[in-house]
Amino acid sequence: MLRFNDIADRILEYEPSADLSLLQRAYVFSAKVHEGQERLSGEPYLVHPLEVAGILVDLGLDHEAVAAGLLHDTLEDTLTTLDELDRLFGENVAFLVDGLTKIAKIEFTSARERQAESFRKMIVAMSKDIRILLIKLADRLHNMRTLVHLDEDSRHRIAQETVDIYVPLAHRLGIYWMKQELENLSFRALEPETASELDQQIRGGNLERQKYVDEVLGILEAKLREAGIEASVTGRLKDLASIHSKMISQGLRLDQIYDAIAFRIVIEGDADLCYAVLGTLHAIWSPVPSRFKDYVALPKPNGYRSLHTTVIGPYGERMEIQIRTRDMHRDAELGISAHWKYKQGKVGVSGDDQKFAWLRQLLDRQRELEDPHEFLDAVKVDLFSDEVFVFTPRGEVVTLPVGSSPIDFAYSIHTEVGDHCSGARVNGRMIPLRTRLVDGDTVEIVTNPNQFPRKDWLEFAVSGRAKNRIRYAIRIAERSRSRQVGRDLLNRELRRTGLSLARLEERGEIEAVAGREIRKGTGEDLYSALGYGKLSASSVARKLRGEEEPEAPVAGAPGRLRALFRRSRRGGGGSGIRVSGQADVLVRFGACCDPLPGDEVTGFVTRGRGVTVHSAECRRIFELDPDRRIDVSWEEGSREPRKVKIRVSSKDQPGILAQVTNLISEQGVNISGAKISTRRGENAVQVFEIWVTDSEVLKNLMKQISKVKGVALVEKMRG
Is the pTM above the cut of 0.70? Predict the structure, then answer.
């Protein structure tokens, strides 16, 4: 059993200023709260946190991280509270333990690669301090070392978790010795018979293999001495998991794995000396051209650097040789932990930041972002800032866009859950549906069969899935309402003359009229058009009775547009818009886009307020029912001025406002209002209300303003 004094002595070797009193208190506290608890091995539970702390010391982590390692199970497995840890050990240690506790709550329910990747992201996103990841890996490593004491199902489950989640994490952090040990322990747990058989086969030839290794080591050491190169040389059999993986992937037997033995040369010198050693090796043994890898000139994304070459060694045996410097070897063994230094609560990397640019590359790769972001910002490892990771009540992880609400969560679970969402509990507390979710939230959706999607949900829904479904459901509901309204209108009109709508439906007469009135239209389409006011109930009733229209409709115009949406006399002149070819129709312009003559436009029929005209580029139109859409166009030669707002952002310096207003005047454009705002150290913002006749006038004006020296941005304001 590892002793506390051993941990204290070792940490002082690399962190002389370590707070040993903090470590002592953490050790005593852990021993006290875990008193009476035992592991399945029968050992006192305290053995586990001590071993985890020892692994953290092997990684060279600071005293706060080691203290957190001693305390890492206290929140989860004892009555200890977060406030208690904060009070006794400080904010930083409490933060680390809390982060570890949140990760421990994740329930790994699937080994599917996609799900596993989500879990990996979840862990990383929750680890706002890189030390949390390292402590978690140390925790998992010791659990894997003691896996034999668990039942078979538990061993298999934990080993599969390790392969899916923790081995890739160790690899991405560049901690190769930990990655290899986790991989081998998992292989032995998942395929014990295969591992045992392979182990026996390897051990069967151990004597001869060791003689071979000793012979090669002797040759290498002698040649390096002759060349005056100071280096250490080691030889070993590759890991069982690595050998087995190669056998499976290439369909080989053990005796067909020619490079199962790997040699490593660690030199005392710089990178240039690696290539000199490489030349010495190739002078001794012939290289295999296709098996040379230069990770010194082209490091791996996780920062791994080394030369790899495979040569035809003594007796015609292939063998792999790695060549690296002492610094490269340290980086390969310890990965990210080799560079993180913790002093007085501040975290950063030792040495030149440029030297460790690989840290940023590693994390940028995980984010899969096109634009790399700087990483070395205090202790933050915010790898997936475009995503938020939350739990279901069963502990399953759900990945959502940042800013998501419970509505987004509900639709990610199931469409029906989203459609009937009436409330949500987050972390056990009822919250408004507008609430933004954060990493680690546990979300429970309350449903009601009488609840249906509302338009205001679109204001706080973020995910595309949620928005699309809400829009679709709203369109369906509106369409259904319009059909019912249309059917009621027609039924009321027919009853006046003693006709039965139901009987006309049975005889197919409704479908026949619908086919004539609406291209490829059905009875449902006819009712919908009636409900939206595109057709007149009296006109359709006359056609069902076989009567002729009292007057021919305007070419291309729906039957009752003129009657339904006749312009108000108070409005004065025309709108400049023709609706299905008809000019004298009540028209409103969408405040969300403020279309101008020259803009491509589309219209939507409203109830009682005429036709609303939107720009064809307006986002609002995607939320409106396509059945309400109607053809609109600008009247030829329409020049009626319309009020719009433009925003001008510029440097805060004298003369710019005068230049902008003079330009507007020169273009013959009237200013009806202006608002100027400035803040010290920021750009000045000028908002103008102007009257323009068409979109070309506006575009030209904005172009001229943008040429003014000091103007940074000119844009049309919406709404």
Answer: no
